[in-house]
Amino acid sequence: MSAPQDYILITGGAGYIGSHTVIELVNNGYKVVVVDSLVNSSYDAIARIEYIVKQPVPFYQVDIRDGEKLNEVFQKHKITGVIHFAALKAVGESTEIPLEYYDNNVNGTISLLQVMNKNNVKSIVFSSSATVYGDVTRFGDNSMIPIPEHCPTDPTNPYGRTKLVIENILRDVHSSSSSEWKVAVLRYFNPIGAHPSGLIGEDPLGIPNNLLPYLAQVAIGRREKLSVFGSDYASHDGTPIRDYIHVVDLAKGHLAALSFLNKTNEGSFREWNLGTGKGSTVFDVYHAFSKAVGRDLPYEVVGRRAGDVLDLTANPTRANKELEWKAELTIEDACKDLWKWTTGNPTGFKIEGYEWKLFETEGHANRLHTFTTGDVTIALANRGALIQDLSFQGEHLVCAYDNGDDYKLPTNPFFGTNVGRVANRIANGEFKLNGQTYKTPKNENNNTLHGGLVGFDKRNWLGPVISKKEDVFTVKFALIDEDGHNGFPGDLQTIITYTIEPTAVSHEYEAKLINDKVDATIVNLTNHSYFNLSGEPTTDDTDVTLFYDKYMEVDDKTLLPTGNLIKYPHATANVPVHLDQDAFFDYCFIVDEDGCGIDTRKSQLKPIFKATHPRANTEFLFSSTEPSFQFYTGDGVNTKGFVKRSGFCIEPARFVDSISFEKWAPQVILKKGETYGSLTKYSFSKKQ
Amino acid sequence: MSAPQDYILITGGAGYIGSHTVIELVNNGYKVVVVDSLVNSSYDAIARIEYIVKQPVPFYQVDIRDGEKLNEVFQKHKITGVIHFAALKAVGESTEIPLEYYDNNVNGTISLLQVMNKNNVKSIVFSSSATVYGDVTRFGDNSMIPIPEHCPTDPTNPYGRTKLVIENILRDVHSSSSSEWKVAVLRYFNPIGAHPSGLIGEDPLGIPNNLLPYLAQVAIGRREKLSVFGSDYASHDGTPIRDYIHVVDLAKGHLAALSFLNKTNEGSFREWNLGTGKGSTVFDVYHAFSKAVGRDLPYEVVGRRAGDVLDLTANPTRANKELEWKAELTIEDACKDLWKWTTGNPTGFKIEGYEWKLFETEGHANRLHTFTTGDVTIALANRGALIQDLSFQGEHLVCAYDNGDDYKLPTNPFFGTNVGRVANRIANGEFKLNGQTYKTPKNENNNTLHGGLVGFDKRNWLGPVISKKEDVFTVKFALIDEDGHNGFPGDLQTIITYTIEPTAVSHEYEAKLINDKVDATIVNLTNHSYFNLSGEPTTDDTDVTLFYDKYMEVDDKTLLPTGNLIKYPHATANVPVHLDQDAFFDYCFIVDEDGCGIDTRKSQLKPIFKATHPRANTEFLFSSTEPSFQFYTGDGVNTKGFVKRSGFCIEPARFVDSISFEKWAPQVILKKGETYGSLTKYSFSKKQ
Prior knowledge:
By secondary structure, chain A is α+β, with helices and mostly antiparallel strands.
């Protein structure tokens, strides 16, 4: 292994501002570790971050008050700095349960600082708030508006007081060994908006406290109308003035603070306002968001709210100068991004019909995701983006282990998983491409099978990113297969999209070369589920219909294609075959003798195979855009809980070992700039 | 059992101010529970408190940050209010290790409040500090001197900031349910002095931060001279002015605050200064203490100290009015009490040659105290104030169990313990006194033996209070035996004083009736140690010499005295007896046929018994002021680790069953106003 990488620890990295900051850090080459208790946030944010940045982000579900657990994280990673978000943050709530606020925020920080001290990590960026200034209009004249950092602090609620206490603790800690501690205190004004990807954003539990989240819920129909608290202030439209800053600008402010600390050699303690310096009224924001939504949203002007004041605009000059940071996005940008996030995720991260659980003894990298819509339930795991359960009207249709660790058994016959970079065999573990010869691991006899030693099936895929329209789920997993891994050329990005409908499930592959390392590679992807409709330990008595009866002749010894496509002797197209002891299959049947291009999604989806069982109600139809499919009766299966013929496989894909045959090679050669694609669909109906 | 008693929880009750407050509370009828982590304090303070107030004070060694342990205390006792002292309190140290200060003080309080909340205890008196005001001279004019509670807060060090944070937390908690929480914030000025008893006081670890403790160490010779930081202030003598308040006055302030809270029916939050309102300069205090010591103490004027200001005097009017409390003691009183504490405890609670450990599985009530001086080592336990070890030049001389729990074995033959209220037998378990008949438990045949079912030997004695002059320890234990307990009349207070010298140990009994419940009771006390010089399992071969050979004739069946004092047939005064199988003793030998008065300490200390052993070096001489002594060869012993004749007893006391014989009764009848007393001494020398 290479030397340990420097990591930045992000506490509360699953939260609104935290998650956006993680993205900015990773996109700027930082390695980050996230700890979050998830009491007020969702791990889905992390999963989506990993999907967005296309790399894993180490995550630990830790309450920072648990010094022991937190310390373990410092043991596992070489942490050089901390950005500290973890906190409770609802002003109103803080007046009702102040102890919880002091405990979470203040105790939490003390615990964090003690662990940092213990591990000699003495660089911290702290997530403070403009709330520490309190009501700056108390100075009568406008001497303190826009608010500078030297403005005296006097928070008016427990939440604000916890932030101020923490600032003081940090100041005292810095003073206690001022040569060592580097402390950046960032005082936020009003963060708004969401990530332009539309994949992460603010996901308030309960009734939102802030203007825009509330407005968004009005727009999406979760709230009736916006209440405007007072329109008799001395502003251009009578509503109070605040400094709204796009959360992405805010996130970048942390990056700026971090590099500031990295640049200084001795210790330091400094506060910076993060704001735009431009005040906007409630109505300004209202209009901007209505514009983004495309219609005027319902609102009502009600009485002033206790504690509200006319103007709380930041003076961000210090940050502009010292951090060389400036807010660049507009309220319009924020409203656009917020609306994208809101429409894509009307209920935030929580999606009805979807739930997940940890699937391995340790960690979040491999979770099990269960989706239910209409008659279909499907469970997908990150490992191999595999199908762990597939049921129609309560009938379970695939072979699976009940826990993630079992999938690592050497006897696992690729249950439910997606295989690649090249499914099926590569003769003699080598191939030629653009005049160059590539060697791949010989993991089956003299050949390479299903992508080699650590194929796509043995990797934890990133994501998923889930969306739901009406009763249809779209679930995306991503995998980056690095150049040279298993001997294949080029960084390959693969995205698999499961579409889950009330009576069907389809999965679509999309792969392309990234990072310009090579001009071409080879790809052949398929799903390797073992199907069994019977509800019994064996598939015997299953009636199957192949819609095609030509197959690839193979050499009996090497099991490699001879190059001939001939009629299969023991079956006939569209004539049902009763699976009994004599009916053995492990052959590639041909849908299109002419093969195909690199993206078969352009060609039509054809029925290829059908299965029923006398003692089951489900009729199972397989369709695909692929030019061939392997039909395997699972005679080699022998693993925990399953034996010979426990399930059969239908693997739509490119011709077996295409790369070894000039005429078939184009099916699997993916050139830079092109996209590999294919689509396979499982349709279910009640047997007539 | 009776209904649960209401308790006040005192956190940090073993500390300087805490311990004095506990005394005031108990003396005013409160029941208190003390929790203290003892990191900065000593359990000896609690032991001495119990000795002073003559009752047990429940104690738990708990760090209040340990919510679980703290909650157990709330489960064990019905707590109705809390006085919260527990905190780190050294200003200078707080600037070096601020995190520990925030953790101990702030986290500690949050944890305490959470446990209180959980147990629905919502009344708290908080130990704050005038430090929260910071440098009040910052207001230029003297508008804030003397300092009123409305003076703006701005502490200048982490310690002060922890106190202010806690005040804010308490205010927020009160506001969150203002009808329920009752909060009293007491801001102390400069506590000085010690308890008039001289038994408890300030015991600073390391170099004292404060003027008087430092001055006291100069006086006692632990420090060379006092440094006076600046004599060029605008005061009458050029030294800064502070508000020094006697710790006992301060303690009473807590009592006043507590009754204030008890009086108010709805919730409340209020700050009060606890000070005298009278400023004194450093030199004022210096002179007052020099006067108490009786000589001028060495000092040197050095430069001003950073952060020092001219005048920090309290305005205590609010406390005077609202709490009806006023500081009444003078600086002179404080200096006198401090000097008494200092001379009596030159090294504070830590005494060279003394150490203690817990002696039972649970709790501090029964500790084992070991003292070493010269050739003598003795270990004393609170249970029965018993002697667990007694050695001379490394030769162990008494029978003992090695842990406190074994002393509760039913087979324990009174090892090392002090027996009472009436040692030896009371015929037929009843006696007449002032015409009234009292019945006592018949715990041996038809008689009462050694005070009945739960005699003095089975009680945990209070204390000890230990002092050391040159190489002599004085160790006092106290026991209150309640009226009617075991059938005896009157509340009897017994104090046993062990005097431990380099070659001798003596123990002295002093008992008197308290609380005026009866005119008279009966008392007869003795120590029941089993001696064995041999270092072997048996006392056989021991050579003993009785200095008297008359004894109390007893009835063979009842073992009760016949009333005759006659020559003992099988031994002669001053003629050594070799203890072999034939030599059996369980008789009371007579030192003075005329008996004695109730306090034998007035008569002389007479040698009564001597013992040596051929294979041991120690010569053991017993002397006593008592008129008789029981000599018992331990033939009835049969307990864990010990059998017949493992040790012999010498029990100097009053005549057996005196109360049943008119002529002897005066020996044991203790009248109100009189004092029962006796003295017994063990002297050791190296055998010639």
